[in-house]
Design brief:
Layout lengths: L1 E9 L8 E7 L3 E9 L6 H19 L7 H22 L8 E9 L2 E7 L3 E6 L2 E5 L5 H7 L6 H7 L16 E7 L5 E5 L1 H4 L4 H10 L2 H16 L6 E8 L10 E3 L10 E2 L5 H4 L7 H22 L1
Antiparallel strand pairs: 1-10, 1-11, 2-3, 2-12, 3-4, 4-5, 5-8, 6-7, 6-9, 9-10
Length: 306
């Protein structure tokens, strides 16, 4: 594999930056992650960190050096991350679990597969043209993509409100897309709403395509902060260019096909005491049991209100 990658997070006009991002890779697979802790709940930054650590740890266990099935891996890994956040809340006896969005992308065999939950986005760009982007799990996006208008009460509340995330009481809703075959020069951008909410899409796409990613990302992040000023959200972005030309050198270049050891694993995702305080990772049976318990509780609640 050969790609160039750059990541940057800046705190806006917020007391805490609850965004987290990072990537890890083996000789044959790479994982890119971004999470945006939800500020309306306690310890959103912990939820974001736990999501990244949990998914990255599962990637390290299973990418040996390639994943058997990237789509299946992402689906299972995000449920494990969701459960880890809930377990953290129980361990600390929190009345409400911390919550986070997440967007994750696996690149393997020259193709990209991604998953998202919430409104952290992925953009796939080729020669400045948008090929695909994720669709937010918000009532506004639901209204845009269906013929059925959102109910008036939801409009009056807040059309930007999310209807799913990691850490909530119910099973998270997420979308998986891919695999999508990449071409040399293709760019993938993972970003929080602090970036895409501040910049109009044409400006975002032009900025991403016009410079090497190591220059494009700082310029986009700074532009978002300047536009929103003292109302700025935290702004976080991670971008990669796939198979950049051999004669182009930039910060963040990664080439795994020349690595001397087949067991190569590298990561920018740092461990922290929050995940270390938890028990061993959940196995698949435990995940399914917990999901069944959540669904049963939802059904009981619905029946009691009927």
């Amino acid at each position: 594999m050969k790609f160039s990658v750059f990541q940057l997070s800046r705190r806006g006009a917020r007391a805490v930056n609850e965004d987290r991002m990072g990537y890890c890779y083996t000789r044959e697979a790479a994982l890119f992650l971004l999470a945006d802790g939800m500020g309306g709940h306690a310890e959103g930054e912990v939820a974001a960190q736990l999501a990244l650590q949990s998914i990255a740890a599962q990637f390290q266990r299973e990418a040996t050096p390639a994943l058997a099935d990237p789509s299946d891996f992402l689906s299972r890994a995000v449920l494990t991350a969701h459960q880890q956040i809930q377990r953290y809340a129980k361990l600390k006896r929190m009345p409400d679990a911390p919550r986070t969005t997440v967007v994750a992308c696996v690149v393997q065999n020259g193709a990209a597969t991604w998953l998202h939950c919430g409104d952290s986005r992925l953009y796939w760009v080729r020669q400045g043209q948008l090929l695909a982007r994720t669709r937010d799990h918000s009532y506004m996006e639901m209204e845009r993509n269906t013929a059925m208008p959102v109910r008036l009460a939801q409009k009056l509340l807040n059309r930007n409100v999310l209807f799913t995330c990691l850490g909530a009481s119910g099973k998270p809703i997420f979308d998986v897309s891919g695999p999508h075959i990449l071409r040399s020069g293709d760019r993938l951008l993972l970003c929080s709403d602090g970036l895409w909410g501040a910049l109009k899409e044409p400006a975002l796409l032009h900025g991403l395509a016009s410079l090497p990613v190591a220059q494009a990302i700082p310029a986009l992040v700074e532009s978002a902060l300047q536009i929103t000023g003292d109302k700025s959200d935290n702004v976080t972005a991670l971008a990669l260019e796939w198979e950049m030309p051999d004669d182009v050198q930039s910060a963040g270049d990664v080439r795994t096909d020349t690595a001397s050891i087949s067991e190569l694993f590298a990561s920018t995702i740092q461990s922290s005491h929050e995940l270390d305080a938890l028990d061993d990772p959940l196995d698949e049976d435990e995940i399914e049991r917990n999901i069944a318990e959540i669904n049963a509780a939802i059904r009981r609640s619905a029946a009691s209100k009927a």
